[in-house]
Amino acid sequence: MAVGIDDNEDLRTLRVDEDGIAELVAAQRECTFAFTTAAGWPAGVVMSYLHHDDRFWLTAAKERAHVRAAMREPRVTLVVSNAGTGLPGRRMLAVRGRVTVHADAETKRWFYPAFAAHHAPNDPEAFQRLLDSPNRVVLEVRPVRIAVSHDSTRMPGDGRGGSLGPRPNKG
User: Fold this and answer.
1) I want to staple 141 with a disulfide (CB 3.0 to 4.6 A). Which of 27, 82, 97, 156 is the partner?
2) Where is this region: Disordered (predicted)?
3) Helices 105-119, 124-131: inter-axial angle, 10-degree rounding
4) What pTM was estimated for this model as a whole?
């Protein structure tokens, strides 16, 4: 039996390896930031990120629900997929991490230019001016572990049950 052609139950062999993680994180610019609301519900928002010094850096207005949640409970999960990147196959990883909320000028001083250059390379100065607002904070997520990952390019065929050639006879 071939994983991804005849079997889609045990996908442990299809985890993203270290090189694949680095490639995915570099190619993607957005993630789903998952957190727990004050009422105990899981929730998530799509956010742009900058990966720097093995950490994920994000920004938002400090009164947003996900920022308030991060200040209350620092355990979060970031989900990164290859959707929209041009990377082949279907790839994803869920990174468990601890978030620190920064409001200090020193963090903003290096973060805003780097984030703006990464996300608005044609006019980073305009984006930096937009980001530099009085109630904005910077979120630093330090990864603890990869909770889940998947890389369909590690399976034969197209990852949807098809194959690149004739299927063996199950006879």
Assistant:
1) 97
2) 149-171
3) 140
4) 0.85
